[in-house]
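Re: export button greyed out
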Amino acid sequence: MQKKTRDAQATKAKIIHTSMMLFSTNGYDATTADEISKISGVNKAMIFYYYKNKVGLYGAVLSHALESIHDEVLKEKEYLTPLKDLKRFIKTYALYCEKHPYLPALLLRELSNSGAYLPDVMFDSMRKLFALLSKILKEGERQKLFHNVEPMLIHFMIVGTINLFITTKPLRKKSVELEEELNTCCDCDMEYIADYIFNKVKLMLS
Amino acid sequence: MQKKTRDAQATKAKIIHTSMMLFSTNGYDATTADEISKISGVNKAMIFYYYKNKVGLYGAVLSHALESIHDEVLKEKEYLTPLKDLKRFIKTYALYCEKHPYLPALLLRELSNSGAYLPDVMFDSMRKLFALLSKILKEGERQKLFHNVEPMLIHFMIVGTINLFITTKPLRKKSVELEEELNTCCDCDMEYIADYIFNKVKLMLS
Amino acid sequence: MQKKTRDAQATKAKIIHTSMMLFSTNGYDATTADEISKISGVNKAMIFYYYKNKVGLYGAVLSHALESIHDEVLKEKEYLTPLKDLKRFIKTYALYCEKHPYLPALLLRELSNSGAYLPDVMFDSMRKLFALLSKILKEGERQKLFHNVEPMLIHFMIVGTINLFITTKPLRKKSVELEEELNTCCDCDMEYIADYIFNKVKLMLS
Amino acid sequence: MQKKTRDAQATKAKIIHTSMMLFSTNGYDATTADEISKISGVNKAMIFYYYKNKVGLYGAVLSHALESIHDEVLKEKEYLTPLKDLKRFIKTYALYCEKHPYLPALLLRELSNSGAYLPDVMFDSMRKLFALLSKILKEGERQKLFHNVEPMLIHFMIVGTINLFITTKPLRKKSVELEEELNTCCDCDMEYIADYIFNKVKLMLS
DNA sequence: CATGAATGAGAGTTCATTCAT
DNA sequence: AATGAATGAACTCTCATTCAT
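Workaround output, generated via the alternate export path:
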């Protein structure tokens, strides 16, 4: 009869995790409080008790999802060589996305709205991420290692590729089943992807 | 009061164009028949009269948006050199997206759902697009012009960059206002982008 | 099978009349759209279709209730003698309230809120009513017929008495049943009330 | 965090005073336990701990508000002359209402419901009040001091005027701002009102 | 073809009330 | 006595969809 948890932390965690899953798979609008409640096993009213309203919940979910990105991707305070920094950037972001597959989906969804309702926490994270890469690239340029750098586009190449790679996983599988000739990199693992991207970016900046 | 146009084609066109705008800016769920009706000036019931239901309307909108991609991007039947084909591919896709800015938004939205409800017409177009690039790249590999090609990833680099570039336009503007140091390629034009991408891809495949 | 009325006027009328009854007997908050729908036989959504939201409905109900007050009470354009005008004022207001017993209840309810949310239409009506009496009283004063006039208080005496008389009807009945000695004017009719008030006011202003 | 007062009387008092304020300004339905809790600083559950449910709380609030009316208005056991008694009645009631401005609001609100849910404690107080006036008037009639007395209506004139005067205070101010010509007795003080009413009632009963 | 009225199934949110500590 | 967590029943409002004209 340990059903009545009376444990605020546990309840909040259940709400957040269920919501993150539903928001990223079904989108904001198609995710209902009823569904979150049913799947998480938490009374519907608790969602509003803790997060005020649906928008508040969404913000909390994003905050939670982005929380670790600062620790994992942006933590590196000591800079090495631009090349090593670049490699680390790509690898960390790729692995981070693999570990939090909800993030790319949420990101693309927001962008599909032109970021009209993009919560601040997400906007900030995106900017910091870009600022970090930008700094690395500029330092490389200064050291004559990188040439003809357009940071924004390089950034899009890296994160665009990784995001698409993750969000299209089911589609690529489906595609392969239909026509085996197409090589959709279905079984590639993340390490490989990150290395491949790094090598290509290195080449294109040489 | 004499609004009774009685012109099926005109009515359908109004519905499709209004819907395309609303779907791509607000998303599927947040777009209501009432809104489409009010903005387009077409009676709400007509939407269902012509397109059966909301999903049907969405499919029609996508069909319409993708209609031209076949003519414009995939039409090229005669192949030149792989390099020229690659350049043409990138340029045509970029310009196509600029001409139909709704498309990238709709695409990202669908992908953010892992393409779970991706309409067939869209899935097919995406596959054909990839198949075309794939063919070009393989021919280049056969001719020893391109090396170490992973078509899927190259594809993602190209279309991911272009899609992000278009959908992030408002965000990049906003970002610049906040911090002028960051170069977000705010004033780059599409021709420049396409050329830049082509050159970088050429470099990375050499 | 004449059930589907498809008659906007009839539907609106059903909504308004049912709402007026419920608002005045149960108050704004305790009146639910479900109840209005069930009692009126009109689909719940139609309430919002026609009146946008609950506040809109309430406003419409008030407008409707007050509509006639201008015709009946305020219509008199030609002034006779102050005494005759005063008598007419009291009588018309009293009979109007008897004919629209919802009005006094709605009025008291709004006032119990200090008129914080008093809709404009109601505020205006109240002011016009007072302005009319004020004019009559001042003219009487000018003709030395009335003495020591404090228009606002005279106004309160008249409408306060009538309003209380109408809204306390059930209570007075109940009171009589408990203790027969108290004379609560239970069977007084409106004509008598109006005459009584007029005579007393005449006396007090002499 | 050391808010645990553990002082039942103080807690109850906080609840009652906050509730009285909220009930009279926002009405029964629009007053929520959450709001009472937040404003009073008392934990929400304590409201139900002490007063069982919302109706119980409301009853307690009314009891509290009416408690003093017996002491202040009804206490006079020794009767003087009818005229002096009448004057005292009006004055005491007027001053009492000024001291407890919540009461008139609560009263009007209940009456706007036709007293359907009027708590017994309030009903009794109202009856006792009327009984007192009734007795005074009858005695005056017996002594041939008052003529043509309809006690209920006289009662309504007195309390109706005072109640309206108090509850319409904000409205009268607002009205004056709009149209300065109307004299809404905005700055009249209670003593003046009570005297005016008494004089007018004396005149009308002569 | 076209229109406005009508419908029913939710969706988000609120709130009185209870429970466990 | 006091607290924060939990609950379930409403309630307002929305929206895809259908009907009658």
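Chain A has a mean pLDDT of 89. The button fix ships in the next patch.
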